[in-house]
Amino acid sequence: MNFTAWIPIFAIVVFLTLFCLWHVIVNTPRFIPRWAWILLIVFTTPVGGIIYVLVEVFDAGTTRQDAEGREPRSE
What are the DSSP calls for the chain, one per residue? Predict the structure, then answer.
């Protein structure tokens, strides 16, 4: 079996995991506690990292308009 074909995939997964861990440590998560994000990212790699990016990094819709064009309330 040729393991060299798996090196780019492994590198992407490692990069995603390290990026997510760095981002969760530097920034304050909004939806679940920091320790829960770290456990999710580490133990469900790469799915946990993908979920973190979609929910926390891409704002999860907090800065977008709703369906009727209203802006979100500022806190």
Answer: --GGGGHHHHHHHHHHHHHHHHHHHHS--SSS-HHHHHHHHHHTTTHHHHHHIIIIITGGGTTS--TT-PPPPP-
Residue pLDDT, tens place only, 17-75:
999 999 999 988 888 899 999 999 999 999 999 999 988 887 655 555 555 666 656 55
Location of structure tokens 């079996």: 1
Joined together, the tokens standing for residue 66 give 């709703």
Tokens, residue 22: 């760095």
Region of 64 on the Ramachandran plot (φ > 0 left; ψ -120 to 50 alpha; else beta): beta
Whole-prediction pTM: 0.73
Q: Between helices 7-26 and 34-43, what is the axis angle to 10°?
A: 170
